[in-house]
């Protein structure tokens, strides 16, 4: 049909059944103002109501007749270009999200919000209090009745944290809507400290490149060589903290800038500290831009504008900085590449490493993955020759690694010590108090699952098929494997030694604080965890206080484990290594090795040597012993054999389907039916090798009166398998059950929540 001015758009809604390109036509004067990436307004659906839409193509012809007309161009200046549109299509295809959700993820939040001149150091904002899939579902339900509340939820789905003032400006909602959502338990308030943004360049000392060590020199040469040839190559830079990785980044970036190009540097949010930013500012001055969630939207948008205008050569930021619209990209760096926070938990649930790889390939440029404890996947790829392995074996600053001592908690119990602190640790704390040195006590409490173990012999109830610690569900007193759904009644006696002292594991930081106060009444103590940080003091305040007042003891959860640098800390106690060893996750070993490496890196950063005491009921555990020796190679060799024999990544992907609904019996029956359907579909195609596991209850088996069940598919998640999943989702959307049961799919999720 011969229409001119055809415009292909994606409407700005996140539901699957409108996730396709719609064709419109446009009058000449509007058509001239738009390009791919423009934001327009179109009539949509019954009653032709007004709808925002993104232009994704300008086709020459169309198979549709009688096209409706675009009503207005809201933003002619494109929000994304062809390269980033390709990234969005990749996300839509790989992570089972809508194209609109992918576009929202890559575009700056609240574009056009005027910058507030704010002098506050602490700002109040909101975060989601429920999982993303739950929020997504509610979104469509409350959109009719409370459109402002829906907008707030949508905003928080896309951003980990949003200042309440930004919420009000962007959504037009008042404090009432925010409070209403809080009352319903859907969002909760959070206070954060805002960093000086981006950096006060006038105060930064400029630095020059250091003379590289031979290992650094070899790494820099190989990377810059690849950059100059205009070839994509992935490098895995393996080196302990302090081995000079950052100096390698700085010199590679310098070379890239000299060639007229720029670099994106990804770091985990938690290590994006002012000190870290200052190192980059010291080398590159005002040519850097910083993107992180502690900026207000106005400030973030300002940084985006500087990037797009070409004023910036280096973008440093957390996960979502991988979407930075930097011109002439010449290098991508991902520091601490093994960090779980690179996996987005909300929709779209992308992994920044996969996006980095895609952008590096599209731009024919090198990608550097760096870590002291690389992910098993990346190290395996490097060993196979898919990535080039670069090793920095020595510490550039010659600091000693601390002495690590493993303490057997079973013996403590046998000797009648029921305290959370072993005699050894008490002794060391006392010594530190006498010498006036600082101590950090660390209690890992990641996730919501609790396992069941025997305090007498260390036995842990595990699923034999999956080798995953089974999770205790208190309400019904049963144990479940969150991978395959295998469920048994809770045990009262240890099958290994017969002891009755077998129970679920759990201690809070509060209890540790009480005990420490009792044992060392003269010591000053600070506690930092999720509970203390909802209140008036932010993390940063607690950490500042710890450093400034030389508090004797800091007790904390995983937040104290990473990136902190206190020269006066000479002792770190890991109170329960078991909490990490028995995560309901096939990566438990990997996470434990990383954790101990990081925690020990906290001790002895100053002139005095540090030491670490690791308490556990499994002192013979190999990962603990390898971590104690800091022998990554030995850890990897063991772990990769396990992964292969149990069929876990990198030998497969894990696709998760989460089903939620108000009636548990109906939900579990429907989940079983869906799992069978998936099994049949996978069997039909010879090329597909897949294990469909479950269904079984999720770690959080009930939220907001909705039950949650999971099906896992262990397979190579290639296009054939993804197509099966996509068809299953589409089929569900058409069935009557879709009215009360919701399904979402996720690729390689971080947790089984
Ligand atoms: P990483 O990023 O691996 O933790 P850094 O690059 O931060 O390591 O280096 C650790 C310390 O060693 C820093 O203080 C840095 O200035 C110093 N350093 C790094 N490379 C050199 C070098 N070639 N010569 C002297 N000092 C160096
Ligand atoms: Zn036992
Ligand atoms: Zn299992």
What can you tell me about this protein's structure?
The longest helix has 21 residues, at 664-684. Mean pLDDT is 88; it is low at 112-118. Helix 4 (132-145) runs antiparallel to helix 5 (147-158) and helix 8 runs parallel beside helix 9. The protein starts with 5 loop residues before the first strand and ends in a 6-residue tail after the last strand. By secondary structure, it is of the alpha/beta class. The strands form eight sheets. A seven-stranded parallel beta sheet has the order 11-12-10-13-14-9-15, with helices on both faces. The protein contains 24 helices and 32 strands. One zinc ion (ZN) binds at residues 463, 465-466, 468, 481, 483-484, 486.
Brief digest:
The chain has 753 residues and is of the alpha/beta class.
